[in-house]
Amino acid sequence: MAETLTATALTLKDIAREAGVSLATVDRVLHNRPGVRPDTVRRVQAAIERHSFQPHVAAAELARGRARRFAFVMPSGPNPFMQQIEAYLGEMSTWLSARRLSVETVRTDVFDPSVLAGSLEALSGDYDGVAMVALDHPSVRAAINDLVDAGTKVVTLVSDVPSSRRHHYVGIDNIAAGRTAGALVGRLAGQKSGKVAIVAGSQGLRDHAERIFGFNQVMASEFPGLSVLPVLEGRDEDDRSEQALARLLGKHGDIVGLYNVGAGTQGVAKALSEAARDKVVFVGHDVTVLTRRLLLQGVMDAAISQNPGHEARAAVRVLLALARGEPILREQEKIRIDIVMRDNLP
Amino acid sequence: MAETLTATALTLKDIAREAGVSLATVDRVLHNRPGVRPDTVRRVQAAIERHSFQPHVAAAELARGRARRFAFVMPSGPNPFMQQIEAYLGEMSTWLSARRLSVETVRTDVFDPSVLAGSLEALSGDYDGVAMVALDHPSVRAAINDLVDAGTKVVTLVSDVPSSRRHHYVGIDNIAAGRTAGALVGRLAGQKSGKVAIVAGSQGLRDHAERIFGFNQVMASEFPGLSVLPVLEGRDEDDRSEQALARLLGKHGDIVGLYNVGAGTQGVAKALSEAARDKVVFVGHDVTVLTRRLLLQGVMDAAISQNPGHEARAAVRVLLALARGEPILREQEKIRIDIVMRDNLP
DNA sequence: CTCAAAATGAGTTGCGTACCTCAAAACACC
DNA sequence: GGTGTTTTGAGGTACGCAACTCATTTTGAG
Predict the structure, then answer these.
(1) If I label A169, which of A19, A271, B38, B329 is the partner at 20 to 30 A Cα–Cα?
(2) Domain B67-170+308-336, CATH among 3.40.50.2300, 1.10.443.10, 3.30.230.10, 3.30.160.20
(3) Which of A190, A310, A344 is facing B190, going by the closest CB pair?
């Protein structure tokens, strides 16, 4: 009734003996250094695979000497979600220093492609890995590819640049997030008919556009009785969002649901309460101090959330695994779309 | 615009010099070995804290020599959720062997206190850490405490034994899970009045009892119009659950919601469909092959889920951190209550 | 066959810690 | 002041690998 996993106590020396070569040759193969005949390479690799040999991480880490340096490129604005990510990076400091890893945070204007691209280029050569909140733009894409070509491991965070050659994306599928929001609004509203409002930062932002797309998909296919009103753009600002929504609420008396795609939550909540329309189902994004309060008060009904702590840690782990040449535990690093309601507030 | 975390390149030698003692003495302090004057201990600790020195994990690991052995004590029955946990442990094998960690799975009858306690005692001395799915019973509690006293690190998994001196619990808060289920059933049902059914494995199981408690709490306080029927006990078996539920559905024509607390999901779904009562809001637990299908078909409306992969990995990481004397990243190891609906199926 | 280039062997050093031994120094007690 | 005990120093070895040097062997081209 017992099963054992792992624990090969093999070392490089054993592999060398097995393959009938010297330690030096095994080392050359392992780090694809030149000067080994293809045939010999194959023999060594065969021996490695035969015993499914894994170099001892601790020994490798100790032997390399120099510490690994990672950079996190984050937006300079006062975005609470991004601040949470940075805070969670801070909480890892003990973990990081016990592994002799250094993580540096670089703040820049990620919304200006040329500024962002410039910041990325400035990092070249100094870091083993870079995690970035990036805009999808040709010059950013080029900067990312340059980093990759220079041997730096690159991870996109929260917002992806799929057309680049980045090694990994740590973040959610925003279309699925929008679909989830749609399903929640539709189901929680209950009614068969009525109108639904959407407040977004800007439809020009990739993640917002994707969320709206997913939301509309679900509304059209599953809640045909609910009609979606044109998207209000609030630029993630409280005042702007409030005014736009107040106007809309005044015009339509039969709004039963509201999806707030980005920030500006404070303004949205204010517009709702001042219009005394607290029966409207209100679904938004992210768990912050504010949305937590709104959920507890019953003003917000659900928040779609991506765990910032998980994103911070996943980015570090992925960069480390990439740098070490270890496989990535995809299941572990995947960021899930959390539905947060009052009773499962984290 | 840049901030740096960590990367003290200090070594034990530096600390020794700082404290004006030899390496041997620092070593004695670090591992609380005897033979050091209290005053000297303080001086060394002061030096360590002054520089917030952290021993290099890789070096420590390498120097230990012997590999760490962990045991996972799992239920012997064919529980799909537990099988998933074991499967995810299997996926970690590369990660484990690169760190020279061995994980052994021991299957036993965790529902029989004396058998479980016996299995635990049999592990004594052989392992650095043990993770277990445990029953809360005096003799189990005693066995756990014995392990702890013998220096073994102990983590309870999925089901806790809070009265024991186990070092950590990896699992969810079941009362909160029940509350979440209640909120979902209530909200999704929409109606102001009607009846709600509960199917559980047994009210004698701690986690089931806690879930029911939380569920009733929410129903009573937030959905006074919905009346909860007496709990059906299906012993987590399909047939039993089906028959019990079929009878109940026949008796009450106004059932609008159903909470399935444990397994037996297949039977519950069958009873619902054969009674042609697919309008009933159906909330259950865990994402398995079956519940995934039911969610996609619209038979189930939501599943409360705890991520088995996360639990498996968290248990290993916590055991490792405990064994190394490292701090635990509580935020990371916390198991969240996931609400899974069709559109955010993982 | 000759010679240069390529491939390989053999060896060294160092990473930072754990764990061990033995001798020397400091201390406590009578 | 002598004795025994406690505390401390000094040093060594080992862990598994990275990274390097240098000598030697093998290979292929002409």
Answers:
(1) B329
(2) 3.40.50.2300
(3) A190
Nucleotide C11's nearest residue (CA vs C1') is: A24
- Going from the C-alpha of A346 to that of each of A308, A334, B2, B331, B336, the distances in angstroms are 12, 19, 30, 10, 7
Lowest mean pLDDT across A60-74, B34-48, B166-180, B268-282: B34-48
pLDDT at A2: 60
pLDDT of residue B96: 94
pLDDT digits over B116-137, tens only? 999 999 998 889 999 999 888 8
B9 CB and strand C closer than 7 A: yes
For β-strands A153-157 and B232-233, DSSP reports them as unpaired
pLDDT for A196 equals 97
Q: What are phi and psi of A12, to 5 degrees?
A: -60, -35
pLDDT at residue B192 is higher than 90: no
A60 touches strand D (CB under 7 A): yes
Mark yes or no for CB contact B98/A334 under 8 Å.
Answer: no
> For residue range A72-112, what is the model confidence (pLDDT) as tens digits?
999 887 778 889 999 999 999 999 999 999 999 999 988 78
Residues in chain B with CB shorter than 8 Å from the CB of A184 are: 341
Determine whether the interchain pair A101/B176 forms a contact, defined as Cβ–Cβ distance below 8 Å. Answer: no
Superfamily of domain A174-305: Response regulator (3.40.50.2300)
> Can you give the distance from the CA of residue B34 to the C1' of nucleotide D1 in angstroms?
30
Residue A57 approaches strand D within 7 Å at CB: no
Residue A8: the pLDDT is 54
Q: Test B7 with A67 for CB contact under 8 angstroms.
A: yes
Q: A101 and B188 in contact by Cβ < 8 A?
A: no
CATH superfamily of B12-55: lambda repressor-like DNA-binding domains (1.10.260.40)
Task: Tally the residues of chain B.
Answer: 346
Does A6 score more than 60 pLDDT? no
Say yes or no for a CB contact (<8 Å) between B339 and A344. yes
| Structure confidence at residue A165 as a pLDDT band (50, 70, 90) | very high
pLDDT at B299: 94
B62 strand C contact, CB < 7 Å:
yes
Residue B153, min C-alpha distance to chain A (Å): 19
- Residue B121, token pair as written in the block: 């005692």
Provide, as residue numbers in chain B, all residues whose Cβ is less than 8 Å from the Cβ of A340.
Answer: 339
